[in-house]
Structure formats: structure tokens, C-alpha cells
Fold Zinc finger CGNR domain-containing protein.
Amino acid sequence: MDYDTYGSNAVELAIDLANADRDDPDWVRVFLDAHDEWFTDGTALELRPAEAGAVAQTSSLVRDVAEADSEPEVMARLNALLALASPKPYATDHDGELHLHYARPDAGVVEQLTTTVAMGLSQVVVQHGWQRLGVCSAEGCGHVYVDTSRNASRRYCSNTCASRSTVAAYRARQRT
Ligand SMILES: [Zn+2]
Ligand SMILES: [Zn+2]
């Protein structure tokens, strides 16, 4: 599938956010540290509790979009996420390749994150269809994914889950 590089990276940021392990009380900080290349140099990553709550809300909204199973439902949930975004796009070649950034470079980390995630996710949905987002079919996984396969046939979040499920199905057939 042939979508623009930044858009496709931004949707991966969204997927990572939805799949973040929220059992760790410090998960927001862990997530921001692991993805700090997404934020303008000098952006403070320390968050007040209310800001950490806003990141959790964005994470839940991304998951809601991926879990929706009709176009109207995806649209409504996507629009709830977009309502939190403050896009101020600009072109940049900071990494040597001309591309768009969606958020103000001087915005706080929550605004940069929410805006980038909302815009990245929306682009994939409007350009490639709402069915491109889904929840892993492997038992006990629950991760969301974006399907970039040519024929939109993906059912698992990762190769690990795909092969685990193939083995489980094989064993189940052996038993019967
Ligand atoms: Zn960039
Ligand atoms: Zn999985």
C-alpha cells in the first residue's frame, strides 16, 4: 500500500499509543520517552496529571476508532478524536525529506501528540477506507493494528500473533 511516509508513520504512532501498556502507572512518560523523535526539539515531556489524563483519552479514542465496525461508527469516533486536535500544518525537511508536520512546532507535547495522531489516523481512514484499522484476532491479544497489505486481508497485529494462531488452529484440528 502506497501512502505518504509521514502519514503512515503518524498512524503507527497512533497504533503504538492505543497499544501502550497502561498498567504501568508511569506509562505516559514511558511512551513519550520512547517516541520523543515525534516532538520538536526542546518540548518538555513532564506532564501534569491532567495532561497525562488527556494522553490516556487520546489513546482510548484511537482504540475506539479501530474497534468500530461500520463506517458511521468510525466517522463518529474519528470526529471525536479530531475535535481534540489543533492542526497547524507546515512543510519541513528537517530529516532531509520534504514532508508535512500537523501540529504547531511550539505547542505542548499533548497538543503535538494528539494532533499528529488524529491527523495521521484520519488520513489513512479517508484515503484507504475505515476497514484498514482493526483489532488482532489472536486469542488474548487485543492489540489494534493498521492494515497496509495490498488486499486488506490482515487479521493480526504482528507476525508473532499470526503464527501463534496458526499453530493453535493446527493443534485444535489435530485434537478433533
Ligand atoms: Zn518530521
Ligand atoms: Zn496480536
Notes: The chain has one domain: 5-175. The pocket of zinc ion (ligand 1) is lined by residues 92, 94-95, 99, 101 (CB under 6 Å). DSSP finds six helices and four strands in the chain.
